[in-house]
Amino acid sequence: MITLVTGGARSGKSDFAEKLVAEKAAGGPVLYIATATNTDGEMDDRIRRHRARRPENWRTEERWQNLDRISLGAEKAVLLDCVGFLLDNTYFGTIADWDDPKQEEADAAEEKVKAELTALAELCNAVNVDLVMVTNEVGDGLVPATKVSRLYRDALGRINCHAAALADHVYFSVCGIPMQIK
Q1: What is the pLDDT averaged over residues 60-76?
Q2: How many domains does the chain have?
Q3: 12, 18, 94, 133 - which has most CB atoms within 10 Å?
Q4: Which residues does the annotation mark as catalytic?
Q5: Are 83 and 134 spatial neighbours (Cβ–Cβ below 8 Å)?
Q6: At a CB cut-off of 8 Å and minimum separation 6, what does 66 contact?
Q7: Non-local CB neighbours of 92 within 8 Å, separated by 6+ positions
């Protein structure tokens, strides 16, 4: 079973996804794939808080690529948090000039992330492990001021559509209230 949880910033999507994956694992071990990278003090604090709230029987892999190489053992469920950081990190490795990003580079990053999500979904399906993915809803805000930000927003919107197509269930979280939309 594949589930996608989306929502805006601080909408409760990660909290809901963690509860959902804990239910799916029924107290058993979980693999938590953390895609954020520590770029500054504020990110360090966010990562620390996320780590602190995970149960001890959850194994964490901090990675944003080669998701098809993850080794699943006794885990009953996998949580990927989050797709937005997966794209963000892929952009950092793909876009050469942030002031004048090339569409081809953005397209390559988008396709790489879609392939990563597809590979992870196939891996989890092959071993009958539930997968819960968290992503950011970016299409409800203002049009970003910079080209690279517009490319990112558009790519993440398409990646989210891809992830939703892979998913059996999709939830949208607003003000801490998750609503099932698929």
Answers
A1: 91
A2: 1
A3: 133
A4: 50
A5: yes
A6: 116
A7: none
